[in-house]
């Protein structure tokens, strides 16, 4: 297939593009480099620099069988402070992409949705039937796009899948997490081990969880990339299907820091800090639907493997930067 990947210069889009290339697909990446990096676009893949609004129509006109849509703004605190950027950058840009797809007759789309659409869940593990009640503008914009996809499937015959990722981590070879504004736990903790930060703040230790810190479901980016290949195959005209993607196992913030200490051999000082606004206590996925309908079985389920792969990536980047300095 010839596939357009929006956001393919970002973390998950870059890793998935490499996975698609390795599976024999022809990939063209469209990315405005607002949070991505030119050198994250995998070798052997075409790259078009630009925004969805400006250039998606042009790229789609060159002949594309399907779109994987990763491009988004995804920093939760920024979305709270500047919701308009998220409604415009996520919902506005996605509607523009859908229009360009309609105009060029491209009818297959896999979309990066998120567990953040569920907000504070009533029960865990979270199934796709759980109420959609996002607790921040980022999650609200992703829920709105999911709803738009359902309507485009119903009214315009779109073949669409929304993949609701839980906490993505790890690396696919040289494709790892490199956000300029980093809010995610594992890269922050590994940054302490690399001496880039003095300590990690633990946001809240009074949650109703076994050790009082937040529990999350960490999924390896390689498993996530594989789910996209399967989702592409499952796209059916006139149908929008939603799948939660996680391992079904929860790890606390303290668990994560402990595994990072084991993997890096660094003491990684941790400092108690107030809760981060909008953080649910526990988010753990039920991915039964993905397993049953997509035949997806995650391969790298252990937290140690996920952290070890992230560490290989981060320590390699640090060594390369040290070499350049
Ligand atoms: N990282 C996670 O744990 C996680 C969890 C759930 C969902 N997601 C979703 O997965 C997707 C990828 O996340 P990521 O962590 O790789 O983020 P990222 O910031 O690394 O990648 C996003 C990419 O999109 C590009 N981009 C943004 N707006 C654009 C536009 N209008 N036109 C063209 N390019 C644009 C950026 O430059 C960047 O390269 C996002 O949609 C995010 O909401 C991520
Ligand atoms: O320095 C830090 C950073 C994070 N945390 C804690 O670590 C946990 C994980 O936080 P992340 O920021 O790594 O991830 P989130 O669970 O907040 O959110 C991520 O996963 C969500 C789905 O679960 C959404 O998809 C969202 O886009 C994505 O950022 C949270 O309890 C957070 O409070 C800390 O204690 N200290």
From TrEMBL:
The name this protein goes by in its record: UDP-glucose 4-epimerase
Biological-process GO terms, alphabetical: galactose catabolic process via UDP-galactose, Leloir pathway
Claim: Transcription regulation is one of the keywords in the record: no
SUPFAM superfamilies tied to this protein: NAD(P)-binding Rossmann-fold domains (SSF51735)
Every NAD-dependent epimerase/dehydratase domain range: 3-246
Organism per entry: Murinocardiopsis flavida
Broadest EC class assigned to this enzyme: isomerase
Pathway connected to this protein: Carbohydrate metabolism; galactose metabolism
Catalytic activity: UDP-alpha-D-glucose = UDP-alpha-D-galactose
Quaternary structure annotation from Swiss-Prot or TrEMBL: Homodimer.
GO molecular function: UDP-glucose 4-epimerase activity
Cofactor: NAD(+)
Keyword field: Carbohydrate metabolism, Isomerase, NAD
Record-listed E.C. numbers: 5.1.3.2
Pfam assignment, any one: Epimerase
Domain of life: Bacteria
Similarity comment text for this entry: Belongs to the NAD(P)-dependent epimerase/dehydratase family.
């Amino acid at each position: 297939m010839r596939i357009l990947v929006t956001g393919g210069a970002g973390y998950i889009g870059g890793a998935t593009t490499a996975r698609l290339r390795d599976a024999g697909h022809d990939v063209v990446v469209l990315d405005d480099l607002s949070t991505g990096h030119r050198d994250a676009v995998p070798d052997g893949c075409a790259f078009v620099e630009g925004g969805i609004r400006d250039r998606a129509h042009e790229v789609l006109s060159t002949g594309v069988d399907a779109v994987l849509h990763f491009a988004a703004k995804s920093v939760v605190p920024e979305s709270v402070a500047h919701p308009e950027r998220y409604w415009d950058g996520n919902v506005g840009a996605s509607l523009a992409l859908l229009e360009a797809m309609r105009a060029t007759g491209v009818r297959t789309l896999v979309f990066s949705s998120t567990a953040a659409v569920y907000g504070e869940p009533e029960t865990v593990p979270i199934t796709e039937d759980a109420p959609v009640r996002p607790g921040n503008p980022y999650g609200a914009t992703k829920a709105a796009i999911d709803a738009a996809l359902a309507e485009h499937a119903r009214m315009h015959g779109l073949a669409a899948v929304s993949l609701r990722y839980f906490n993505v981590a790890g690396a696919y070879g040289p494709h790892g997490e490199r956000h300029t504004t980093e809010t995610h736990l594992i890269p922050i903790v590994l940054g302490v081990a690399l001496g880039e930060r003095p300590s990690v703040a633990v946001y809240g230790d009074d949650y109703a969880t076994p050790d009082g810190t937040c529990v999350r479901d960490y999924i390896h980016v390689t498993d996530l990339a594989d789910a996209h290949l399967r989702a592409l195959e499952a796209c059916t005209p006139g149908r929008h299907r939603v799948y939660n993607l996680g391992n079904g196992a929860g790890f606390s913030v303290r668990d994560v820091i402990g595994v990072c200490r084991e993997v890096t051999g660094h003491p990684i000082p941790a400092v108690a800090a107030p809760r981060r606004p909008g953080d649910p206590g526990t988010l753990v996925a039920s991915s039964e639907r993905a397993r049953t309908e997509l035949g997806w079985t995650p391969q790298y389920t252990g937290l140690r493997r996920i952290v070890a792969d992230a560490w290989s990536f981060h320590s390699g980047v640090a060594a390369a930067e040290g070499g350049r300095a």
